[in-house]
Amino acid sequence: MPARSLAALAALCLIGSSTFAMAQDKPTDPQIAHIAYTAGTIDIEAAKLAVQKSKTQAVVDFANDMIRDHEAVNQQALDLVKKLDVTPQDNATSQSLSKAAADERAKLSTLDGAAFDKAYVDNEVAYHKQVNGALEGLLIPSAQNAELKSLLETGLKLFQGHQAHAEHVVAELK
Amino acid sequence: MRAVIHLGAAAVLASVLAAAVPARAETIQVVIEKLVFSPAEISAHVGDTIEWVNKDPLAHTATVKGGWEVMIPARKTVSQKLETAEAVDFYCRFHPNMTGRLKVEAR
Ligand SMILES: [Cu+2]
């Protein structure tokens, strides 16, 4: 996903919410759950593509780690919304994330070999940076339910590790 | 009189023996939550048991490079009996930014 998209997302989010009667600038818990789940799914999809296409062990290993961790967190998110009897709610941020991810996938699918590796891992660095920024700056402070907040905090810690791992792989590819 | 002396000696002997017998083995809990080991610095003795309590929805490991590894599944507790005196750094193989240090002393 291009680096500008989260700033755009944040803006979209603010604009979108100003149309609500209460003029809230924070996403609601059902929206946060939807955004977090969508963000995880996007990274899983990208990783599956990398496992399929990359011939570089470090890249495949990284991608497999992404699948394992994001699936675990997403499963936890599903269990939580079920327990809380909350229906995740689609929203402008989720839609914008999905749109950016579709564009990125289209780009990645045209690439092969070293060009693919570089584009995938570079994007993983940028993507995790953006998601972590959104978690830290918007989603965690906005979350009302303590368990949801806690899960997001676990996610942040985890994804900071992913970002560092991706940066490490970028350096290794050079 | 002689019996009294013997009794006294026996008491002394008993207390000496008691001091020589190792203190009871302990169980030390290390909680893993939000990808952090706490405590991250563990002091223990040979014969003690570590209980790795994983509160995260993710599997973690406690791994010593070139040494042992304990696999700790999501939301599970795993016990590890400490058999060897050693001072080692450990980390999670899945999430290498999770680190800790274990010092096991002879009893
Ligand atoms: Cu771990």
Overall description:
The complex is a heterodimer of chains A (about 170) and B (about 110). With about 170 residues, chain A is mainly alpha-helical. Chain A has a single domain (about 5-174), classed as Ferritin, core subunit, four-helix bundle (Ferritin), CATH 1.20.1260.10. Chain A has helices at about 5-20, 30-55, 55-85, 90-110, 115-140, 145-174. In chain A, helix 1 (about 5-20) runs antiparallel to helix 4, helix 2 runs parallel beside helix 4 and helix 3 (about 55-85) runs antiparallel to helix 6 (about 145-174). The two termini of chain A are about 20 Å apart. Mean pLDDT of chain A is about 90; it is low at about 10-25. Chain B has one domain (about 25-105): Sandwich (Immunoglobulin-like), CATH 2.60.40. Chain B has a 4-stranded mixed beta sheet with strand order 2-1-4-7, with no helix packed on it. The longest helix of chain B is centred in the first third of the chain and has 19 residues, at about 1-20. Chain B has 1 helix and 9 strands. With about 110 residues, chain B is of the alpha/beta class. Helices cover about 20% and strands about 45% of the residues of chain B. In chain B, strand 8 and strand 9 (about 100-105) form a beta hairpin. The model of chain B has no long low-confidence stretch (mean pLDDT about 90). Classes of the chains: A mainly alpha (about 170), B alpha/beta (about 110). The complex binds copper (II) ion. Copper (II) ion binds next to loops of chain B.
